[in-house]
Structure formats: structure tokens, C-alpha cells
Amino acid sequence: MSTFRRCLSKRIALIPVVALVAIVLPPTAAQAASSGATFVGHGWGHGRGMGQYGAYGYAVNSGWTYDRILTHYYGGTTLATNAGNPTITVELTRVTGVDTIVTGNGLAINNVAVGDAAVLVRRTGSGAFQAYSASGCGGPWKVKAGLLGSGLMISTSGSQAVMGNLVRVCEPKKSTWYRGRIKVVDGGGKQFALNSVGVQDYLRGVVPRESPASWGSAGSGRGMEALKAQAVAARSYSLGSAPRSPSGASTCDTTACQVYGGAFEQFPGVTLKTLEDPNTDAAVATTSGRVMRAANRSIARTEFSSSTGGWTAGGTFPAVEDLGDATPNNPNHTWATSLSFSVIAAGLGTGTIRSMAVTARNGLGIDGGRATNVRVVSTAEVVRDFSGNQVRAALGLKSDWFSISGSTLPEAQSVVKALYQDLLLRNIDPTGLTYWSLLLAGGTGGPALVASLTRSSEYVQLRITQAYLRVLGRAPDAAGLAGWSSQILAGKVPVDDVQRRFYSSQEFANRSGGTDAGFVAALYPSILGATRVATSVEVDLWVAKVRQYGRSKVVDSIWFSFEAASARAGAYYLLFLKRAADPAGRATWARVLLAQGEGTVRTGIAGSQEYWNRAQTRAF
Fold it and tell me: Could you give the percent of the chain with pLDDT greater than 90?
């Protein structure tokens, strides 16, 4: 959307965004008659404990406070305020097993001044370390007298409120500044560098890596509650985790623990980057000392993941419905990915695949919830069962909550017949029915059929005719129909763009009475819905914009508004599902429409479980 449209849209009272609705493909077995399978799933990550997008949704859309968010996700725990600010150690995984190189002001090892700006520590064997010093990270290095034992501490002098007084770890590709000190240990015959740091300073480098700091500004500041929840969960997770083996660190700096960036980083030739943020710093400070404690008063290891998909996975904490996960800015609430059978077979180690299906689920959420068992049958009739999590890990899926596309031939025939009637307004011919039904039953997704039909000249001419009738009140003339068809089929104009362009025409303006006020008044019911009448305030606003920017700019502003997108999404519900759209579904597809176009909405709704089911009961 142009800047003009964005600005004007903010000034018009349009339908607000509401919760997403999950749309999925039929969960029948994928057959190897096709080249692959489509996985349609929900959520991103393991789904245990708090969902970060869910926390955002509850905070911004529902007005929940951080303590309510935490209590919802971590059943059986209570929020305590007595954890203090203990020192923890963070395993810096990028420098595991290599020399530890540190620079900073007033460097010291075990509180003994180094005398140079940089120090290198190298394991020599049997838990002993040799230190070297230099004027910078690149050397040349001078040997420091004597060997040092495991657990040596590298520190700097001066207030850590000054960046130059932080310890800076030098790596081949970048440097990272850390608060606290660097501890070098021998663990199982390997050298580890640990950041020894107070948990408050540690969290300043964690929270903006795990949840976007910008969330704090969302919802007139309500998003800060999500950041506070993240701060408490991250504090509890770090203090409630057992020491890592073999380094002995409290935690690590990757997704294997929770992501920790430190305070600053710099790549060669690139401006220094601050890794902390005022929003997340405030969330950490406001929740200082707060942790979730289990019934036995121990600090709970509060796991979290990006998106639960609508239900948490259970485990240490009871599974709960996560309505907050359906927040409109969550791109992972529902997702889809297609993989070839060769890739699937290689990932699972099954040999050539004949069929693949989810055979058991945990019973929580849409489609029966997370896959607990997936059965794969090879062409050699070897049957292999996998857990949903094994499939997720092997194939790189976002979560273990997924369905696998596929169908029987009679089911596929019903869907093909329904799509022809809905898109082309006619019954399918026998040849087309046989061709598409075999492909659909073999694993080709319904969206592929939708895409093919909507690229046909028959569909294009039908849409052009509908645009003429709806906007101009007449059938197209032969030259107009041919001209628009040629441009669309050549890829010069999207088929969904014709109706919008007609609204900017002089013919529509004349049909609206020839005045700017009549033009605006006619746009509202035609674009936003038959019962939507422009108020006098709206008419005055848009008339002024017509005179300032022209009719086409005003058409674009209204056409690309959320309200207009909601109306078009609702029309697709009526077309495909033969029912009015529920508010959640309309909002979901309106957002998709604005971001990805109407074609995505068509293929999405036509590939939904509901459309598939309805097609099985339609009379043809």
C-alpha cells in the first residue's frame, strides 16, 4: 500500500483486525502417485509452556497483564518476587573448543593486570591454560609467565555503564561486547568460554532476542506486558535449568537454551550494533527478581516457544488453549510447506514412499491436535511409524502439529466438481474430471487446481464480465472484453485488478451522477458491501481527497482498506463455503488478501478442510 493509502486508511473507521482462524487441507494419506506431499500445520517450536505470539496477543488484543499471561501458561506455578540478581554463566557456543581472545580497558586475569589491551587463553592439556597478551585482537602474541588452571576469570576495570569497559570477545567474523566477566574452563578435554554475569544484565541481552522489543510499543504500550512475561519466563528458565555438561555453565547462548546476544556486536566494516533496547531493558528492570516457582518452591524451568498454534503441548505444565496465538501479526499460527517424496524419504530414511499419513494425535485443537504418530509405507510394503516430533525434526517442519494432504479418488472427484461450479459456474467435462481427480487423489493440492482454473481464458473472461456488470452496470463490449483478456493473460494486469480500475473510470463517475460526492457515495456500497453507506463526514473527507489527488487515489485507498478486504474475503466465503464468514475467518483472510493478494485467499479457502468436507456432501 502506498504512503498515501496508509495515511488515509488511518483516518477512516474500518473493521478492526480480530483473531485468526486455522485453515487446513484434508488430513488424509498422501500417496506417491504424485511427486510429494503438502504439510499444513500450526505453530512454530515445541509448543511447551508460553507461546511468545500468544503472550503478545493476550497483552495487546485482550489487555492481559504479564502475571495473568504467565499463570495461564505455567499451570501449577506461582509468581514469586524473591529470586534476586544472582550471577550465572552463559556458554558462548561460537568460541567453544578454540582459543579465547578478549580485549577491553584494564584487562586482568584472576584480578592480576595483563598490561596489554588484549589477551589470548589457550588450553595446553590436562586442564591447564597458557595466557598470551598483545596490543589488539590480531596479535602478535607474547607469552605470559606460568600456566593457569580451569576456571580462570578475565575482567576489565571501570564502570560497565561505559561500553569500552565491557569485556569484548574477538571472533574471526565479529566482536561481541559482554557485561560481566569471561570465565575459561576445561570441560571434558575441551575449552569453553563462559560469560559470568548477573542475571539482570544477562536478560538485557536475551529478551530482545526472544521477543521483538518493538512489541512494547504495540497497543498503546500494552505490548510491554508481553515483554515483561518474556523477562520473567527467561529469568526462571535460566535459574531453573540444571548446569550444562560438560562446560558446567548455567545456560548457553543459542536456541538450545535461550538466545543471548550480549550487549553490542560489530562485524568488520559495519557500524557497531546495540543488542539491548530500552523497551526490553524496562521489562527486565520492572520484573526484577520475579520468577515462577513450582509447588515445592523451586524455580520452574519455564520453557517457551514462538507460537503454539492455538494449544500448548503440555508436558511439565498442563496443556492449555492459547487463544492469544491467533493474533493477526503471527505468521506461524497456520503454515504450509510442500516437500517431494524423495526429500521426505531421505529425511526419514524410509526408502521410496507409497503412502504417508498421520495415524494418531494428542486430541488438542483443530484436526485433532499435534501428530503423535505418522505411518509411512514404502513401495516395498515396509511400514515405519514415527512420532510427530521425529517427522518435524527430520523434515524441518515448524512444529509437530500438522496434517498431510491426500485423498481417495471419489473424494477428489467431489472437490474437482465443486471447484468447476464455483469458479467457472459450470459442470466439469468428463476428461477434465478424470485428469484432475487423479492428480488430486495422488497428492496434488487443491490450490494447484484453483491456480490452473483461474489462469484459464474462461475464468478471465468471466471475471471481466462480472466487473463490467458490477461497476458499470452493463455487459462488456467485444473490444473491451478482448482487450482486457489479452492484458490479463499476458501477465500485464492481474485478473483481480480489473474491477478496481473500473471504479476510476469516467463511465463510473458519470453513472454515479457526475459529482464528486456522488462518486464517493457510490463507491462505499459497491466496494464495502451493499448495506455500507458513507457518512457525511466520510463523504466530505474523500471529496476533498478526490479534488486533491484524483479519483484513482481515493479508489485505491478504499479498495486496499481492511474493511474492503474483509468484504471481499466474505464474498469468497459465500462463493466457496456457501455461508457467511465468521468474524475470525474474515479477519484472517482479509489480512492475507492485503498482504498476498486475492489469489492466495482463493487457493487457501478452496484448500481448507471445510471446503473439502462440504464438497463431499454437495449434489452434482
Answer: 79
- Helix, strand, coil percentages (3-state) for the chain, rounded to 5, are 45, 20, 35
3-state secondary structure of 61: helix
Mean pLDDT confidence for 133-150: 94
Neighbours of 498 (CB within 10 A): 22
At 176, phi and psi to the nearest 5? -130, 130
Q: How far apart are CA 165 and CA 328, in angstroms?
A: 43
**What was the pLDDT predicted at 443?**
54
CA dist., res. 282 & res. 306, Å (int): 21
Residue 555 and residue 564: Cα distance in Å, rounded? 11
Dist CA 235 CA 89 (whole Å): 13
CA distance 227 to 216: 6
pLDDT of 17 reads 30
Model pLDDT for residues 365-417, shown as the tens digit of each residue:
987 899 999 999 988 999 999 999 999 999 999 999 988 865 556 778 899 99
Dump the DSSP string for 331-352.
Answer: TTSSEEEEEEHHHHHHHHT--S
Q: What whole-number distance in Å separates Cα of residue 422 and Cα of residue 417?
A: 9
CA distance 56 to 543: 39
Cell representation of residue 617: 456432501
CA torsion sign for 193, 199, 200, 204 is positive
Most confident of 10-14, 411-415, 493-497, 616-620: 493-497
How far is residue 308 CA from its own chain's centroid?
11
List helix spans (H) across 312-387: 341-348
Which sign, positive or negative, has the C-alpha torsion 500, 504, 508, 512?
A: positive
Residue 120 contacts residue 132 (beta carbons within 8 Å): yes
Cα separation values, 497 from 395, 501, 558, 559, 599, Å = 38, 6, 14, 10, 11
For 528, the 3-state DSSP assignment is helix
Other CB atoms within 10 Å distance of the CB of residue 229? 33
The answer for residues whose C-beta is within 8 angstroms of residue 129's C-beta and 6 or more apart is: 121, 122, 123, 147, 148, 149, 150, 152, 184, 186, 191
Contacts of 107 (CB under 8 A, 6+ apart): 113, 114, 116, 117, 118, 119, 133, 154, 155, 156
Q: Locate cell 543471548: which residue?
A: 260
Count of other CB atoms within 10 angstroms of residue 150: 17
Q: From residue 10, how far is each of 4, 38, 337, 562 by CA, in Å?
A: 10, 38, 34, 10
pTM summary value: 0.65
Cβ burial of 475 (10 Å; 0-12, 13-18, 19+) is exposed
Which residue, among 585, 611, 584, 575, has the nearest Cα to 25 in the 3D structure? 611
Residues in CB range of 260: below 8 A, 6 or more apart? 90, 195, 202, 205, 206, 209, 251, 252, 253
Distance between CA atoms of residues 236 and 567, nearest Å: 45
Tell me the residue ranges of DSSP E strands in 288-370: 291-293, 304-305, 335-340, 353-361
